[in-house]
Specification:
Blueprint lengths: L25 H16 L13 H15 L3 H7 L3 E9 L8 E12 L4 E10 L2 E12 L4 E8 L6 E6 L7 E8 L6 E12 L2 E10 L5 E10 L2
Antiparallel strand pairs: 1-2, 1-10, 2-3, 3-4, 4-5, 5-6, 7-8, 8-9, 9-10
């Protein structure tokens, strides 16, 4: 039986995780690629006789960056998730007690040229109403899925990342957050499962440092007819 979690450790909506930094435009990405490649061409004391990089080498590097920036099979799969969904939640503030319930509606749509799936959510937990905004994306360069979440129940940027296999296969995402009451870091694990074309679920698990992992939350999405 897991050791009991403090109720402060269980979120009212989605848990919060470490801040995720990303480039704000394709121009920044290309500038970084060019700068990084230029550094590799600088002479070093032990290899001063190396031949300088040719323009064609830089072209090859830029082509690789451009290929990684294009939507692929995973993005085509995410496009199939677009639409309106009902969201039913169960939240465990105490792993030994019955969960509290939440409900809501989400609109999912592709943004930024089909590269990310954006979620706009309106939900209710008891007497509390809240809104949320999420982004779900797949990185071609390192085969990772990243989920980012914001809502008006807090000020944290929530981020989960995990390795992905084929499009539509379950993904185990990992993140962390700081409990504002105790200052402890909380390890979080989320299993994202696409059950069918009309159902998907998010299962959240976590624990403060020194505690056994316990179930925190379950979100089940069903497509609205």
């Amino acid at each position: 039986m897991p050791r009991r979690l403090l109720s402060a450790c269980a979120p009212a909506a989605r848990p919060a995780f470490t801040v995720f930094a990303f480039t704000k435009s394709a121009f920044a990405m290309i500038a970084f690629a060019t700068f990084a490649f230029a550094l590799t061409a600088l002479p070093t004391p032990v290899a001063a006789q190396d031949t300088p990089a040719t323009p064609s080498d830089l072209d090859v590097a830029m082509q690789a960056w451009e290929r990684a920036a294009q939507p692929g099979p995973w993005h085509a799969f995410l496009a199939q998730r677009a639409g309106k969904w009902n969201v039913a939640g169960r939240i465990w503030n105490d792993p030994e007690a019955a969960p509290s319930l939440s409900s809501g509606e989400s609109k999912l749509e592709l943004v930024l040229g089909g590269r990310f799936l954006q979620e706009r959510h309106k939900g209710r937990k008891g007497e509390i109403e809240y809104t949320g905004l999420g982004l779900l994306g797949y990185d071609n360069a390192d085969s990772t899925v990243t989920a980012v979440w914001y809502d008006d129940l807090g000020t944290r940027t929530s981020v989960l990342t995990g390795r992905a296999s084929g499009p539509g296969q379950p993904v185990e995402l990992h993140g962390a957050m700081t409990d504002p009451a105790s200052g402890r870091r909380l390890a979080l694990r989320v299993v994202l499962t696409w059950v069918s074309a009309n159902e998907q679920r998010w299962d959240y698990y976590g624990a403060p440092e020194g505690f056994d992992e316990a179930r925190l939350m379950e979100l089940v999405y069903t497509r609205r007819r």
